[in-house]
Write a structure and sequence with these properties.
This protein is mostly helical. It contains 5 helices and no strands. About 80% of the residues lie in helices and about 0% in strands. The termini are close together.
């Protein structure tokens, strides 16, 4: 396993682990409400959505170039956020070896 794969794997574990913890403690619906609780929180949410849209477009193009189905990754990103692109990068690194 190369260094990139290890890094992506560790990042995925941290982000997904914290997301799972937040969902277990506060519930899934608390996340969107927190993102619109103030103007500052809404600005951060807009920035995250814009960044994830860029990532989704990249995943779509990259997966098609690799003759892979991008839709599970795109839908996963819509529902689980940044942990799914991190998992995509980990799997991508594993397949490129």
């Amino acid at each position: 396993m190369n260094k990139k794969a290890v890094l992506y794997g560790l990042m995925f574990l941290v982000v997904f682990g914290y997301t799972a913890y937040v969902i277990a403690v506060d519930g899934y619906t608390s996340i969107p409400y927190a993102g619109i609780s103030s103007l500052g929180a809404f600005q951060i949410t807009l920035d995250l959505v814009a960044a994830l849209l860029l990532v989704v477009f990249w995943i779509y193009q990259d997966a098609q170039q690799r003759s892979s189905n991008p839709w599970p990754w795109i839908l996963g990103t819509c529902f689980m956020g940044t942990s799914v692109p991190l998992l995509y990068m980990f799997v991508r690194e594993q397949k490129s070896r």
